[in-house]
Write a structure and sequence with these properties.
The protein contains one helix and 19 strands. With 346 residues, the chain is mostly beta strands. A hairpin with a 4-residue loop joins strand 18 and strand 19.
C-alpha cells in the first residue's frame, strides 16, 4: 500500500480535504466492497493480520500462492485436496523427534511412485502390500520370544530368527524344522533339518525321502556327474549296468616308484633305469594291474618291496627289449599284493 503523507495542524482546510480524499482513494483501490480487502502482492516487511475467518484467493477459486516461506505456528487444517511440490521437489516435514500423522481411522495413503523413508517408519495397525516388496537391508519382524517372529499361512507355519544368530523354519509343534546356526549367508555353517521322515517334493510329487534311520530313498533315477564315494557297505537290489572305465594312472619314474592305488587300479610306468617299487598304499580288496614298459634303452630291472608276494617267492624277470611291455596282475587282500605276470606282450 502506498504511504499517505501526514498533514500538519498549520495546513489549510483544502490541504486536509485533498490529502484525506487521496487516502480514501488509495484504500478503495484495495476494496472489492465494504467487507473485502484485496491486493495483488504482499511484499516484504508487510504484515497481514486477519481477525476471525479469512480467505485469500482469486475470483472464482479459493487459491493461495506463496512464493516464499509460509509458517503456521498453530494447527493447519486443509479440508480439500492439497498438492505440495511436484517432480524433483523435496517435502520436509518436521525434524528430530517430530511425528507425522496422516489421516485417521479408515484413512488410506496412496504412493504411486517410489516412497523413500530415510529414518524410522512405524505402523501401529495392519500393513497391507498389494505388490512386490523388496527389503534392501536387515529386517526385524516382531519382538516376541524367542526372537523376531514371522507367521506364515495363518497359524500353521512359523519362521523366525532366534536371538541374532540362528535361523529356524518350523511349524508350531517344532517337530519338522530347519535350523541353521550362525549366519548361513556370510559363513559356512551346517544346516540342520530335523524331522522324520524328511521328504523333498517338486511339482507336488515326492522325489526323495530320508527316514529316521538315515536311509535315503530316491524316487526316480539318480545321476552322479562327479565322483561318488561310498564308505560303508552298498546293497543293490536291482540290475546294475557298469558303463564306466576303470580309473587308471601313470606312475612317476624314479629311483623308487610309488603306487597310490586309490588314484587308479590300473597303472603304467616306463622305466628309465633300474628301479625299486615301494609298497602299494591305500589298498582295498580287489584286483590291480601294473603295466611295465622298457624305455628307449631297454634292459631295465625292478626290485619289489616285501608287500608284494609271488609264486614260489620268485619275482618276475622283466623283458629287456627296447619298448618291451610286461603285464603284472595283483590280487589284494587289503594289505598285501599277490602277483602273477604276462611277459613280453606284443
Amino acid at each position: 500500500m502506498a504511504v499517505i503523507a501526514n498533514v500538519a495542524l498549520t495546513n489549510t482546510f483544502d490541504t486536509w480535504r485533498t490529502r484525506t480524499n487521496v487516502g480514501f482513494t488509495r484504500l478503495n483501490a484495495f476494496a472489492i466492497d465494504e467487507s473485502k480487502l484485496y491486493a495483488n502482492t504482499f511484499t516484504a516487511n508487510v504484515r497481514f493480520v486477519s481477525i476471525g475467518a479469512s480467505r485469500l484467493g482469486t475470483t472464482g477459486s479459493n487459491r493461495t500462492i506463496v512464493n516464499g516461506l509460509l509458517t503456521a505456528n498453530g494447527n493447519l487444517s486443509v479440508a480439500g485436496n492439497t498438492t505440495i511440490g511436484g517432480a524433483s521437489k523435496t517435502l520436509t516435514i518436521g525434524g528430530s523427534s517430530s511425528t507425522l500423522t496422516i489421516g485417521g481411522a479408515g484413512a488410506t495413503v496412496n504412493a504411486t511412485g517410489w516412497f523413500g523413508i530415510t529414518g524410522r517408519a512405524s505402523v501401529s495397525t495392519n500393513l497391507f502390500v498389494g505388490a512386490n516388496t523388496y527389503v534392501m537391508g536387515n529386517m526385524g519382524i516382531g519382538t516376541s520370544s524367542p526372537g523376531f517372529k514371522l507367521t506364515v499361512a495363518g497359524t500353521a507355519d512359523v519362521a523366525y530368527v532366534s536371538g541374532t544368530s540362528n535361523l529356524l523354519l518350523r511349524n508350531l509343534s517344532g517337530v519338522n524344522r530347519i535350523d541353521s546356526y550362525n549366519d548361513p549367508i556370510t559363513a559356512n555353517y551346517p544346516l540342520q533339518i530335523l524331522g522324520s521322515p524328511i521328504t523333498f517334493y517338486t511339482a507336488d510329487t515326492e522325489r526323495m525321502r530320508i527316514d529316521a534311520s538315515g536311509l535315503v530313498t530316491a524316487c526316480n533315477s539318480m545321476t552322479v556327474t562327479k565322483n561318488l564315494t561310498v564308505s560303508g557297505n552298498t546293497t543293490i537290489n536291482g540290475t546294475t549296468t557298469d558303463r564306466s572305465n576303470a580309473l587308471s594312472q601313470t606312475l612317476t619314474d624314479g629311483a623308487t616308484i610309488s603306487w597310490d592305488t586309490s588314484l587308479g587300479r590300473v597303472a603304467t610306468v616306463t622305466l628309465g633305469g633300474n628301479r625299486a617299487v615301494a609298497a602299494a598304499t591305500n589298498q582295498k580288496v580287489g584286483t590291480y594291474i601294473l603295466r611295465v614298459v622298457q624305455d628307449g634303452t631297454g634292459g631295465r630291472t625292478l626290485t619289489w618291496n616285501g608287500n608284494y608276494k609271488w609264486t614260489a617267492q620268485t619275482a618276475p624277470v622283466l623283458s629287456t627289449a627296447i619298448g618291451a611291455v610286461d603285464i603284472i596282475t595283483f590280487f589284494s587282500d587289503g594289505t598285501k599284493m599277490y602277483g602273477s605276470y604276462l611277459p613280453d606282450m606284443r
